[in-house]
């Protein structure tokens, strides 16, 4: 789907590129949602865009994610998808500026998440956007708020797990697996956030002569640094949580080993006595005792009870 924002505040949606009557002077934003790679060539020809950077999205060099050419500015980065599943997924976002028009390329789930966030935080219908420049800065702000939103989501999950851990006395391997999932999601956000910060730093240099834009970008960078601190705080809490669960698991294992030790000692002494009198030697004086059997049974019982009393005084159980 294609959404075109006209300068008269009109918004039109199209299903096909062929339906669009492209008049750059009347447009300040075009959004491509759920586009296919096969559409890129047609988009490039229709809107006179250089989309070669799309083929370099996997490259780690910042030059593949931020391209400032004389007639076009290209930002290519990934953000974790905002979903209810345990794992986040990286989704691509591309923002291009050419002919004073902001071209945005999004996947459907990211589009929905950003729209929901915009509606919940901003009164976008009453927000006046007069130029492509204002819209571009507004989009940067929404993405920054999106990072804050997903970091808050991870933080809440960690807090809930911490509270459950403090109350629970039994732990499973699933608890450690869940911590690993949270750590992976947190790491994914940190990598994406670091990439976005580098892009904004380069963007700030490009707009250093435009005070208002430079100030806005500086504000977003400040917010992102605070978010980065929260990410590090999440890592610290996950380390504490992992150590706490491991300590409690070790205590549970120690209790099990103590119980096994008690059972082993209590059984081994009676087994030793029974083993002695189970030998088939001819000369065993106890065999002639009238009360040999009761004494042996009594010895078996005492050899079981005495270790129990000893371990009880040692507070092993």
UniProtKB/TrEMBL annotation:
It is found in: Cell membrane. The chain crosses the membrane at residues 256-279, 291-311. It comes from the Bacteria. It is a multi-pass membrane protein. Pfam families: CorA (PF01544). It catalyses: Mg(2+)(in) = Mg(2+)(out). Belongs to the CorA metal ion transporter (MIT) (TC 1.A.35) family. This is Magnesium and cobalt transport protein. The lineage of its organism: Bacteria, Pseudomonadati, Bacteroidota, Bacteroidia, Marinilabiliales.
